[in-house]
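User: Could you check the structure of this?
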Amino acid sequence: MPNAAADAPQADFSSAQIARFFAAESQRFRATHPRCAALHAQAQRHFLFGVPMHWMADTPAPFPLFVDAAQGARLVDADGHEIIDFCLGDTGAMFGHSPAPIARTLAEFGAQGATTMLPSAVALEVAALLEARFGLPMWQFTATASDANRFLLRWARAITGRPCILVFHGCYHGTVDDTFIDLAEGGGTRMRASLLGQVHDLTPTTRVVEFNDSAALEAALAPGDVACVLTEPVLTNIGMVLPEPGFLQTLRALTRRHGTLLAFDETHTISCGPGGYTRADGLGACRTLGVESENVPQRGQFLPDSPPHGATMGQEAGKKWAAAAHSQPTIPKSDRLLEPDMLVLGKPIAGGTPGAAYGFSAEVGARMQAVKAAAAPGHSGIGTTLSAGLLTLRLMRTMLAEVMDGPAYARMFTTATRVAEGLQAQIAARALPWSVTRIGARCEVQFRPTPPRNGSEARAAFRNDLEAALQLALLNRGVLLTPFHNMVLACPAHTAQDADTLVAAFADALDGLAGA
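Assistant: Sure, the predicted structure tokens are below.
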């Protein structure tokens, strides 16, 4: 889709202003980060673009920030600067870096094996905790959410016998090639030009429609050849796009009518509450101002059918786990649920280490087992050796039972609200044609006066030069945002002062732009 906003006259800052401001901020960064510069130069010998994962180089700074340590809501870079982290590993550390229960679990179980490629009792405990939150009884574990989405789509095609999937324009589901398809100008679809090394044309088997377009969705499902709709309940990577009232309910009704499975990728939207976006208020109806406290699922009684292998955990640890399990959120009444057939979780659920899961209904699970039993012997193309390792599952258990709880979310929502209201106040004070959208612990500045209703509107609001200038300016003022867009993520360790520091840095950056 064309980026009309990039070519139109701007009502905020000129291209020349932005360029001058960015140049000054770049010079400031170079002057204050000599050690990072030296490390980046040394790293050219070993790493693509001087970084161990190539898109770590996608930073607005002249060279990447090299990190020495992270704790709670703070990073310490190689030059000794302490930085307030509102990126949090792009959700991987959503509950803060190295929460105390995670550090304890690593110390307690690190010497008891990491992976065996065998089932364990702790896997049952984690599945029970997941069912209590999300209502889906059956689960499989993977190393990443990308793997979970990839395997989920393979299962969906296998059990339905249908070749196609459907995603929304501007979607993000990790490194799943089938989802790197967008709407094309003039109609039809196209593979994203950024996708490397894919030699097959995936457009015949991936349908794409705009988010919030129920008519286009129904037309795309009508032929009866779509195995699965995969979507985030809120688009988050193209810029946040909220579902309009009733859209997700229509999505659920249409998928059922046409025999299509519905899968929610809650990897980012787990920031909306203990049961993700779809359970934040029963029907997933978070609004621009986020999840209000009275809409968070109520906490109730939960215990597994069997004790948590106390001999392995130790008596005291077993008691702690049982007490925490008692306070897991209950499943809201079934008549208030959106009830996807499948659901993906990743990033934060293993405490910042690689780990993800996908859940599904009992009916879908029965179909999966039947199609696998009928298949020829050999590798199904689903599953990896390091999935469901003992240590990963123990970290997941700790996160679900002790870290990702109601009080933690309440603190996160309070901080995110303070940030969103502060950013909006600064925007309003300068009469800038921008908006701020918040869901739960996540908020974002978008360069348009109203929140976008679909991926095309969100993409048209991109201002790459302005975004880079603001992010670099904030980093120079001791605040880190998600590097790919103006996303702010709050964790339980953030304070009111951290929120105020971010808002003050944003205000100072705007003043600097105005004076450039």
